[in-house]
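If I may wish for something, please walk me through the protein I am sending here so I can picture the backbone:
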Amino acid sequence: MKGCAVVGLGATRLSDTTLKGKEMGRRVVVLSMAFVLLCVAAFVCPKKVCASDYPAAVSEYLRFLKTLDKSDPASVDKAVERYVTLIASRKKSVCDQGFVEFLRFYSEVCDTVTLSIDKKFLELSRSSEQDKGAQQFIQARDAEIRRYGMRLDSTEGVWIIAQLPEYIAHAFRPYVSKAVQDYLEIRGKELDRLFVDDGAITIPAEEIGTRLAVWERHLARFRHSALRKDAVFLYRMYIKAFLTADGYTDPLGEICTDKSSLPNAWRTYIKDHAGTKSAEILAGYLDICGREGFRHTLAVDKYLEKLDTYLDSLGKGPTHAIYLQCYYGVVK
């Protein structure tokens, strides 16, 4: 889709920044990407956890979060401060549960602030004479929200709100479990490099393979993480991206042959990661593609269906950190 620069869900784009005459077209962009939808379809809709299912401290923290103004970005700092005083000194499992509640709250604040900025920007940009005021407003709001782990960015002429991963990592790393720390470290590194843009993958196949291997090791190491389902989501996304590329590049189309770059990347991965489940999956896919002449056939589809069944077995359901750090992009 036009203007897509995301890997994840749950964020809102702002209005078109191009002002012409007295009228400005407003675009509403639905954030999606073909192979990401394949991943998302396998997950059930998130269900809210009843406060009574949590330890008393987390339930109290959840009640506190509900009192905060989600249209005020400063509420994020208040949520962090309350977490530190109420939860940070408790055992790691409780800290992780509190962190998950913070992530939900943080995502809701980002969405609400997006709508608020969008409304004001439209008011200020109804004529070309007001363009300067609209741009000054954007600059001022960007400076403000950066203090709370957000930033204004744009892609394909569309404003978006993006989260700054270092804010979350700095605030919570000392308190959460090793599993969550590892998750935040991996995601922070990934966000330094654009993954998709305009619906197309922007990194080499070899780098997708590297990310796939990292998440596979994470899943093997942390089998009971509070963010395991998020890690499974990312593992699933990367292996699907590695196998099926994106909406603009069909690895089983005419441009893909036995000697093309994608199958060669599969072969390298299989060799470098021998003995892993992902290498086994890739080897099986490469074999079936070769036997089917790199064409879409029922046999290929059945193999991918079996892959979905295996990925489901790793764990599926509500995700939390996916809503965190969901944008890949460069600050304009």
Summary: The beta strands are 13-16, 150-155, 158-163, 196-197, 200-201. Confidence is low (pLDDT under 50) at residues 1-49, 246-257, 323-332.
